[in-house]
Protein 1
Amino acid sequence: MRFDIITVLPGLLESPFAHSILQRAQKKGLTEIYVHNLREYSANKHKNVDDYPYGGGSGMVMSIDPFAACIEKLKGERDYDEVIFMTPDGETLNQTTANHLSGKKNLIILCGHYKGIDQRIRDIFVTREISIGDYVLSGGELPAAVLVDAIVRLLPGVLSDETSALSDSFQGELLDAPVYTRPAEWRGIKVPDILLSGNQAKIDEWRYDQALERTRQRRPDLLK
Ligand code: ADE
């Protein structure tokens, strides 16, 4: 699966993709992540990518031309399943969306900045608008990294234990059960006996009950 991310701050996206699971997935050839510097697509001699808003008001608006040049170049090289714009007014990202997008081949992700992007980019090029939550960040780069992470860990072969993505919170509508590791007792606080029992059927049952209880307490909306 291939991602092409378009941003004015490519440096912001270096670290998230250079470690751990995302790095390994790229090394194994399971995903390719390309970060494109929007400024390189500015025809302007100052490499500007934004301009004053028509109608006045504060803040700058990202211009249509650099985005159009970059998107059209990419689309001339291959077909894309979606052109996604990261924006707080998009649909809220959830596991269902991540699962769905993990079945795609090529995605373009646009990162906005300043006051927003010219509406015509959204109207003409964008096929999907995604928010990572009801709060406003300084730009779309961190949201893009969140989206890519949520998708890539679902690709076959990315996680070493193939079943572990399936038991994640949200994957089966329940939150995860609590987990413990050694020592079995720390400052007088013990790991639940059942986890030391060796009885896998009982452990599975306990985990299910814990997951259900945690979901009931924290996210009753998921049980509806
Ligand atoms: N850009 C700024 N805030 C955002 C958010 N919450 N989700 C997606 N993109 C954003």
Protein 2
Amino acid sequence: MLRYFTAGESHGPCLTVILDGVPAGFSIDIQKINHDLWRRQQGYGRGGRMLIEKDEVQIRSGIRWGETLGSPVAMGIENRDWKNWTKKMSLLPEDRDESVAVTKPRPGHADLAGILKYHHADIRNVLERASARDTVSRTAAGSFCKQLLAPFGIKIMGYIRSLGNIEAQFEGLSYEEIYAQADESPVRVADKEAEEKMIALIDECKKRGDTLGGIFEVVALGVPPGLGSHAQWDRKLDGRLARGLMSIQAIKGVEIGLGFEMARRRGSEVHDEIFFDPHGMVSAGTPRIVPTGFYRGSNNSGGTEGGMSNGAPLVVRAAMKPISTLMSPLHSVDLRSKESADASVERSDVCSAPAAAVIGEAVVAFELAAAFLEKFGGDSLHEITRNYEGYLEQIKNF
Ligand code: EPS
């Protein structure tokens, strides 16, 4: 079973992630993980913290000579900002200083629910862990998982569909083209006109002390049919993807394929009709790696049916709310005096939805890798490849 845990406070010494259940024999390129960490740091609208950090992973176990050993993989990422927080985030009781306590919870953040739940007097005890800084660890774990999927031709790509009320238009482009263009864009969008408007909107929000959310899409190509299962709720791939995506900081909605729009249409308008062509290598306009003669006229289901992948491109979207730290703060109440107060202001981003698209890729990569290893499970790349190829043969000759 593939699983991971993360640990680390936003302004603590480092972030840690342990990825357990990794089979042996996979080549791992640390620079590819660092590249994803770098991508996560980019995006127009990011705050001052990204100027301080240069996120780089140190792998502390589980790899020898560039290959996985089959043992747990421990990764650490240093917080460069830690040196500015050694007293405020100190482990030592003698460094306690109540005067630095954060006491005005921000609407939309974990602040209020967290202090009530954990009986803290200082919101910092909650916000440090609730911070989206933790997504560095998740990106590292997911980027590692991309390298578990790559030998099987599975590619995962995230990009922005909308920021605020500005929607990107990229009809006519293949997923690979959308991704390639988005990867060059400061707002991760494959639409120059929308990009300009998005940047202007971020500028305006910044000027007003406001923040901005957005919707990102993650597509996975080359996913074979049959990952996940219809047989039990917690094995359903769509459910697992939704949980993973929803657990990213500030995500308030997840859709698969046509998603919510499906509910507004009739059955005859949404379901992806089934065809067969013995030489069929095309699924919803995207070349397939998986050889089966069955194909679909559309991909409204977004690559999952009955909780299983169906061989079509996996298409998921997530809606990120605007970041809850506003430089023009909203109404709040001081925890100590119970008097009206402006919510506390922490250094933050104006918009980090473009970064969330990279985190979304990582989350999808983890869920797919976990489901892939369940289906083709084995202790080594050698064994998994054998299982995978046997299955491809089986569905090809069905
Ligand atoms: C983030 C690090 C944080 C924030 C942001 C994302 O750093 P700091 O709090 O020191 O500025 O920039 O986190 C939030 C917006 C949040 O609400 O937690 C990062 O590394 O992505």
